[in-house]
Amino acid sequence: MMPDLGKYAGEVTSAYIASLVLLGVLVLWTLLRGRAARAELQDAEQENGKDG
Amino acid sequence: MSIWSYANPVKFLGLSAKVQPFLWGASAICVVGGLIWGFFGTPDDFRQGSTVKIIYLHVPAALMAINAWFMMLVTSLIWLIRRHHVSALAAKAAAPVGVVMTLIALVTGAIWGQPMWGTWWAWDPRLTSFLILFLFYLGYIALWEAVEDPDTAADLTSILCLVGSVFAVLSRYAVQFWNQGLHQGTSIPVATGGRSVADVFFYPLLMCMVGFGLLFLALVLYRTGTEIRLRRAAALRARAGRAA
Question: pTM for the complete prediction?
Fold first, then answer.
């Protein structure tokens, strides 16, 4: 159940939403970039294997 | 085994893969648990009302914003002195995490400051030094992207990190250096052991601080692995290009 935040409800909820969005974007971006890096390394190793 | 053996990227990735599940799990439990505890399970402050709940985001983010820069300082010094590539890449990996933590601290501070101080922003010593730290983070990231040769980029960003450390120290101690600011003093002074936060707020805050710290470690280890893989892929492509 949502606590009664009184007259500061807007400030408190906006602080939580802004922070959680920023943290969420950071974690998601980190994981997507990590996945892309793994794929890129795999491609480079395969190409190198073919050439070498 | 010496700690320097983890400067070997293969050994670093092996250790990192082992500890990361624990770090991700523990950070999720502490951050989610601490925020739920703080938001739903703590009373309003008699003076600040419900805005006191912003402390569970603002303080851990500010703590990590400063400590991320100190971690970058240590790894930059290791790069400059011992030339271990993993340490330079760890500093590079930590910067985006630090910039997000600084942004969270600035945004939540502004939202908290408006009802308490009557203004979103003041050129207060701590706020100003934090803004400068934020700009240093942006400059540090931009410098890594701007320089093509990775070793030169690591050298230049390490020097920038040394200079920026002045503002990281100022962000931490500004409230002790100058007394004319709006920002209150340190709530939990580590050196003296005393604190101005009541237990009912302190324990969920402590849980959030531990959670943010573990999340920072998990993110930096994961991102350092990403940087190592990208560097290895670039080296392989360069070698293939020379052979062709």
Answer: 0.91
Task: Answer whether A10's CB lies under 8 Å from A18's CB.
Answer: no
Tell me B187's DSSP state.
S
Partners of B43 on chain A (C-beta within 8 Å) are none
Mean pLDDT, residues B174-194 taken together: 63
ipTM above 0.95, yes or no: no
Looking up tokens 């909820």 gives: A13
Chain B CB within 8 Å of residue A49 CB:
no
- Which pLDDT score, from 0 to 100, does residue B178 have? 62
Please say whether the beta carbons of B92 and B227 come within 8 A: yes
Which residue, B42, B177, B56, B161, is CA-closest to B105? B56
User: What domains appear along chain B, each with residue ranges and CATH number?
Assistant: 21-237 (1.20.120)
pLDDT of residue B55: 95
Q: Spell out the residues 6+ positions from residue B161 whose beta carbon is closer than 8 angstroms to its own.
A: B69, B72, B73, B76, B91, B140
Give the residue, B176 or B28, on which the prediction is more confident: B28
Residue located via tokens 């802004």: A18
Q: How far apart are the first and last CA of chain A?
A: 63
A15 → chain B, closest CA residue: B108
Of B134, B155, B129, B5, which Cα lies nearest the Cα of B68? B134
What span, in angstroms and rounded, lies between the C-alpha atoms of A32 and A40? 12
Rounded CA-CA distance A46/B17 in Å is 23
Distance CA B119, CA B124 (A): 12
Residue the block writes with tokens 């540090």: B140
Identify the three-state secondary structure at position A1. Answer: coil
- What is the structure's pLDDT at A2? 82
Q: Give the best residue of A7, A14, A16 to mutate against chain B (max B CB count within 10 A).
A: A16
Structure tokens that stand for B23 in this block:
């770090």
The predicted pLDDT at position B240 comes to 80
